[in-house]
């Protein structure tokens, strides 16, 4: 597979996370040179140009002029050929640009067209979707998985056999977590990059994603996501999508040394590692990772796919947006909100809200001093 370079929307105004695409001077598939302007964006107070990081071709263009994006979202990619494909899409997906649909009756709803189609096909009401933030297909998949778990129809009673999708470092750590929980029998790993039959951490590689249908037919319905996604979030989200589409159920796995208050509420697919603490009235969304020694204090709310690294500390009332990452030993102060897909570096201290897609460098204090 060709290596593609993502073109991301920069945060040009620290107080405003959204930017309007004013112009796209380069068309899909066109050749571009390093330093060439590929997009012009603006906020209410700033205007900026996005330059190509390398020479190549503009591929996988997802949005059009006049659309509004969040900082950190991928506009498109730089490829080595004009026919390179979007790496965040599964092989069977439509390669057409991703369009954002706006529902006229729901003025606060911003939703991608694939997410809208999936929601409607599954009988979800658009009124029940999150308002004020971009709803992606992954957001809808999380809601679908959550509803399935509540209905009780997706998990065969008494089923203990389980597979781990992803045999890298996080997958092996997850295998150890599952073993310590003593609740499940691990059959092996699924991994798209390793030969079938390869031994990993004492477990066999059963194959790649193509094995999901065969496993489901054999009555295997449990799986956990072993892709950490720190450097490749789309890969982690893609695993959840594949598991949901194959009707697999993702149980939460909790280490015996982790402490969860009785009033804490965890969705399915959550991974809680050794010595972590989850406080009173905490709400943890689908697919979150609460890593070793992380502290989630009272009344915190974690949206789906949040990743708390080892030793991260959240004071009371912190709200963390979908798919955000909080680095090792980072500290988030009382009642602070962390935006969707924001990245908080290791050892950082966050004293005020971080916008969607915001980046707080390691070892720094947010907001920056002026």
UniProtKB/TrEMBL annotation:
Domain Lipoyl-binding: 4-79
Gene Ontology MF term list: transferase activity
Top-level taxon of origin: Bacteria
Membrane-crossing segments per the record: none
Gene3D superfamilies assigned to the protein according to its UniProt record, in alphabetical order: 2.40.50.100, 3.40.50.20, Hexapeptide repeat proteins
Site feature location: Increases basicity of active site His: 299
Residue numbers binding substrate: 231
Active site per database record: 298
Key words of the record: Lipoyl, Repeat, Transferase
PROSITE patterns: BIOTINYL_LIPOYL, HEXAPEP_TRANSFERASES, LIPOYL
Name of the protein in question: Lipoyl-binding domain-containing protein
